[in-house]
Amino acid sequence: MSVKSWGEVALHTLLVFLLFSAIFPLTFSAANQPRNPKKRNPLASDSSSAVFQVEGNVYPLGHYTVSLNIGYPPKLYDFDIDSGSDLTWVQCDAPCKGCTKPPDQLYKPNNNLVQCDEELCAGIHVSKERQCSAPSDQCNYEVEYADQGSSLGVLVRDHITLRYTNGSVVRPRIAFGCGYDQKYSGPNSAPSTAGVLGLGRGSASFLSQLHALGLIRNFVGHCLSVQGGGFLFFGDDLIPSSGVVWIPMLASSLEKHYSIGPAKLLFDGKDTSVKDLELIFDSGSSYTYLNSKAYQAVVDRVTNDLKRQKLERATDDPSLPICWKGTKPFKSLSDVKSYFKPLAFSFQKAKNSQLQLPPESYLIVTVGTFLRL
């Protein structure tokens, strides 16, 4: 599990595909359940896709957020987008400890607790054992992220406003966390968002619940602009019909994460001898993390290549042990590209094709990148 600001692990897509030299769209799906028309909810429209505006940028914010209306009458809350975790939660007036929002912007529960004996409650716990003295007890949760940031609270169920691309609106009841005790332990200031939107593969994720209700087909994507902002969509209406590359997803031991491979590491389009890499996609992480062998291969090649450039090692920031600076500050990605060669992953089972939805789990790469389950 991870999310930018509340915790960081796994991999940031901008650095993974430097070959594309710009921010590109990503699509994640949360459950590998097959399509089943019989499960379609009668409330769903003929167009089963919904689009939400995304705010944020790579720099200086370093994260992207989306706002969702919760409750009835609806109230707007902003969330970090995180494909690396399942649980969606919002800061909760219960009362709240460690919250970053003022009381009037906190979620207020209203006799809508999820009970401990519900299957959804089991979905948010690592262990199958739920500590319930009685089946009707409330479903408590605790989620901890890679930097030891955490949220403690109780699971509730409330209306979420979902507007389809054809203009129709549904308000299904979705379960999410009501976080009344947040902890943050990072070098930067506490996050400004109201909570985390969990888009992982587990049964409790936002996408999985919508799919289980028959309201959407299990696609989710967030497309990011190089100028900042973008959009988040649920459903498959916006998947391009051509110009795509399919990459099979792995049946990983990390069953709630999006994992692809095998992949080879390329530097300046050339093989580095690092291969058979298994990669995890995590929209909530700012950085790309490599194992020691791949990391050292990248460092060695970048260092050797920069010997011909007018750059020098920067040592003033202890959090970045390997860093370079030029005679003038870098002002854009274009400035960086003139000094640094592209780093890329070559997926050994990628297939160029027209869009034909396959039975297996796939990642699609085009001018953007798409994942399908």
Quick structural summary:
The protein is mainly beta.
Number of helices: 5
Strand order of the largest sheet: 1-12-13-2-3-4-11-5-10-7-6
Give a quick account of the main beta sheet: strands, pairing sense, barrel closure.
11 strands, mixed
Q: Give the termini separation.
A: 19 Å
- General form: globular
| Mean pLDDT over the full residue set | 76
Unreliable segments of 5+ consecutive residues:
1-40, 353-373
Structural class: mainly beta
Level of helix content? under 10%
Q: Per DSSP, what share of the residues sits in E-state strands of 2 or more residues?
A: 25-35%
N-to-C SSE string, H for helix and E for strand: HEEEEEHEEEEEEHEEEEEEHEEHEEEE
E-strand count? 23
Rounded radius of gyration (Å): 21 Å
Q: What do these coordinates show?
A:
It holds the Pfam family TAXi_C. This is Peptidase A1 domain-containing protein. It comes from Stylosanthes scabra. It is a single chain. The protein has 373 residues and is mainly beta. Helices cover 9% and strands 31% of the residues. An 11-stranded mixed β-sheet has the order 1-12-13-2-3-4-11-5-10-7-6, covered by helices on one side. It has a 4-stranded antiparallel β-sheet with strand order 21-14-22-23, with no helix packed on it. The longest helix has 14 residues, at 292-305. The two termini are 19 Å apart. Mean pLDDT is 76; it is low at 1-40 and 353-373.
